[in-house]
Amino acid sequence: MKKKYVKKIAVLGTLLVLFLGTSGFKTDFFEIAKQIEIFTTLFKELNMNYVDETNPAELMDTAINAMLQDLDPYTHYWNEQEVQAARINNAGEYTGIGATVGIKENQITIVEPYKDYPADKAGLKAGDEIIKIGEVTVADFNEDAGELLKGAPNTKVQLTYKRQGETKTTVLTRGEIEIKAVPFYKLLENNTGYIVLSQFNRNASAETLQALKDLKGQGAEKIILDLRGNPGGLLSEAINVANIFIPEGELITSTKSTVEKYNQTFFTTRKAIDQDIPIAVLINGRSASASEIVAGALQDLDRAVVIGARSFGKGLVQRPKDLTYGTQLKITISRYYTPSGRCIQALDYQNRDEEGNAVRFSTSDYNEFMTRNGRKVYDGGGISPDVQMETSEFSNITNAILQQNAIFDFATNYYYSHELDSPEDFTFSEKDFNQFKKFLASTGFEYKTFTEKQLEELKKAASYDGFEDEIAGSYGEIQKSIDASKEKAINTKRAEITGLLTDEIIKRYFYKEGLYEYYVQHNPEIRTAHELLNNQQKYRDILR
């Protein structure tokens, strides 16, 4: 009760920390100064007079985070540790255990161990829940337990973890971890090069360029650039990657803001390495930010055919602002636009629905733009592909399945109940899909449709008008129809669900490297891109 009360009070004053750390004030200086003064006096009186002992640092963190949550998901306050973590992520190297981990509610779960790195060498697998780090029990640790996994190179730490209900221990030796921006590339049939670009860290353009040169040296005459699942990263690297294929002096992206100095344009600055080689770019609903800048520029300039599903739509630009004591404010300053003028941002955080969720543009509100060759393209958030692929989509029910970790958990169970000698031996069968549906039912999977939400509002209105008894029977029939439709939706979206399950299962046995090897033989998006690039007439027709 105390925490909730304090949060409501403290949120009023966080302007003190945020605005004193900036280089200048907006025109509403008086209002800002007024709120800072109010908060200063409030914060002082609260800490001096509250009935129980208070923690000023915790109050301030609560206030800051509560205020920023009302803006957008990308504006963050970073403490000293988070500032350092961001620098490490952009650099592409760090010291640690060599695994992606999931941290929530005092739980640490191994999501993906990297091949031949410390976690893998220690025998840790995806799905393992770490319950103890050294002598510290994770559930009892009040701060970020993930920090306990970090340490100097070659230092050892004992981990206690649960696997399939059994408690195990292992000793892990921390090491230097290098995160590759281009984890895989390969020459496919018909002189087609395939490059996976997984993130835009400081090495992204250099690694992409090296992969291109290597593939061309092997005879590549066409390129598939895979940006699926790429969350973005550094804007400068997005420009540099685009510059590999786009000549000097071309607009790649622009930013617009209510703050004049943040209205900027970004052009290529060097000669292209190869401005003629045919390109197919793969995107999906997890391709975001810098990925969308590259895909959007290549599409708007008719330099590549984009294949897959509409990208995420993360078109908000953040910039770190240094605060005191080594902390930072990562603040949204502007929006990204493609060369044709399309806004990449999908969600409007200034306008929210009744549940507080940001409003997304409907198709009826999309605006038409033109590529360099006069092709019609549309805004609405994200980049819409030239060739739409059902297997690349993330429908509402698929997203609900992902959010409840059903695919991850099913893959964990599958790994411990099936043997698999090579990726080529794997097929996700009809029987497997039925098992997955049974698994969903057994875990209490819940998915509330928009129709159900509206139906609940109808029940409230009927109760208010005194009609609840009259509509009770009809309500029950409608709910039965909705339940049947939800069951049908899982079957209808089988292709995209099966694709995600296949990805997760293959990784369990053969790591990311094995998954990419499986992709180049079986992935429908890669096959489509390969066929298109080898049909130059069709490729040119799309770009016209």
Automatic annotation (TrEMBL):
UniProt keyword Hydrolase, yes or no: yes
The UniProt record lists the keyword NADP: no
PDZ domain span: 82-176
Alphabetized InterPro entries for the sequence: ClpP/crotonase-like_dom_sf, PDZ, PDZ_sf, Peptidase_S41A, Tail-specific_protease
One Pfam family per UniProt: PDZ_2
Gene3D superfamilies on file: 2-enoyl-CoA Hydratase, Chain A, domain 1, 2.30.42.10, 3.30.750.44
Keywords for this protein: Hydrolase, Protease, Serine protease
Family as reported in the entry's similarity comment: Belongs to the peptidase S41A family.
The protein's name in its UniProt record: S41 family peptidase
Species in which this protein is naturally found: Salinimicrobium flavum
